[in-house]
Design brief:
binds 2'-monophosphoadenosine-5'-diphosphate, 10 helices, 12 strands, 6-stranded parallel beta sheet
Length: about 280
């Protein structure tokens, strides 16, 4: 029931109409008896500050932030969590005692399916495809999970190098190297890796016939984790399964970041059986 005490949450982005977050959070509100509602707000860059001021003035409990606002939101907030500060990106804003605090739960969401599936990262070698905001969240998560070595692979090499520099200087993690996507050495690098993460948008609908790297490079010792969740079974994951590699799709991360945001807003921990039900609902 919506009443005078219902708290408002939502997602601010552009585009936002295909977001699964409203479904996801409203399901959690209902299942966990929290009196809140979550809406999607399409906000253009030039309207961001007004949108944030409006949500603040209306007393919204908080909101998610997505493309293209994850960095632009920062000057509009009162403070940042250490993680959001280290990443230079915010995906969750929480109103705490009248102040807007920026958090980042993307990296928590990324790690969640790895621990749930007993994929060990500590001291391992991980290969990350991509060098955008998603890739930085992945790399940050890997470092927090004590990965041994990271290879960042990107179509545009200088972006991979910029990410690696951020990682060395701001995150103080030195075991990072960069390669271009078409580098012949990629095959060699994958031989020592145990985890391959696709943090590019290659394979995303409507270009779902695309694969970010050649199928021939995939090896059975890898866990292949694709952040793309539309479609759930990407060409990369199909090819990985065909060589006998373990796979993880992008829905686990989406749910993981949402559950972490939900807990920040409500103080309620989402039980694992509810997470499983949510996954079933969103993948059917
Ligand atoms: P996000 O916030 O999701 O990370 P982004 O910052 O736009 O989005 O990054 C998209 C990533 O996908 C980049 O690493 C991009 O590679 P470039 O830096 O070379 O642009 C990668 N990407 C997008 N389309 C690609 C394609 N067709 N082939 C290879 N990489 C692609």
């Amino acid at each position: 029931m919506i009443d005078a005490k219902t708290t408002l949450l939502g997602i601010v982005g552009d585009p936002v109409e295909h977001s699964l977050s409203p479904q996801l959070h409203n399901y959690l509100f209902k299942r966990l008896n929290v009196n809140g509602r979550y809406l999607a707000f399409r906000v253009k860059p030039d309207a961001l500050s007004r949108a944030v001021a409006g949500l603040d003035a209306l007393g919204a409990t908080g909101f998610n932030v997505t493309v293209p606002h994850k960095q632009a939101i920062i000057p509009l907030l009162d403070s940042l969590s250490p993680e959001a500060q280290a990443l230079g990106a915010v995906n969750t804003v929480v109103r705490e005692r009248g102040r807007l605090v920026g958090h980042n739960t993307d990296w928590i969401g990324f790690l969640e399916p790895l621990s749930a599936n007993d994929v060990h990262i500590e001291a391992q070698h991980a290969v990350v495809l991509g060098a955008g905001g998603a890739a930085l969240g992945v790399v940050y998560g890997l470092i927090r999970a004590h990965v041994g070595h990271i290879s960042v692979v990107n179509r545009t090499l200088h972006k991979a190098q910029a990410l690696a520099q951020h990682v060395r200087q701001r995150l103080n993690f030195k075991q990072v190297e960069t390669l271009a996507l078409d580098d012949n050495a990629l095959g060699t690098v994958l031989r020592t890796a145990t985890l391959l993460v696709n943090a590019t948008s290659v394979g995303l609908w409507p270009h779902s016939d695309k694969i970010p790297i050649s199928r021939d490079l995939l090896l059975p010792q890898l866990t292949v984790y694709d952040l793309v969740y539309n479609p759930l079974e990407t060409q990369l994951l199909k090819a990985a399964r065909a060589v006998g590699a373990d796979t993880l799709d992008g829905l686990g991360m989406l749910i993981g970041q949402a559950v972490a945001a939900f807990s920040l807003w409500t103080g309620v921990d989402v039980p694992s059986d509810e997470v499983a039900k949510l996954r079933e609902r969103l993948s059917s």
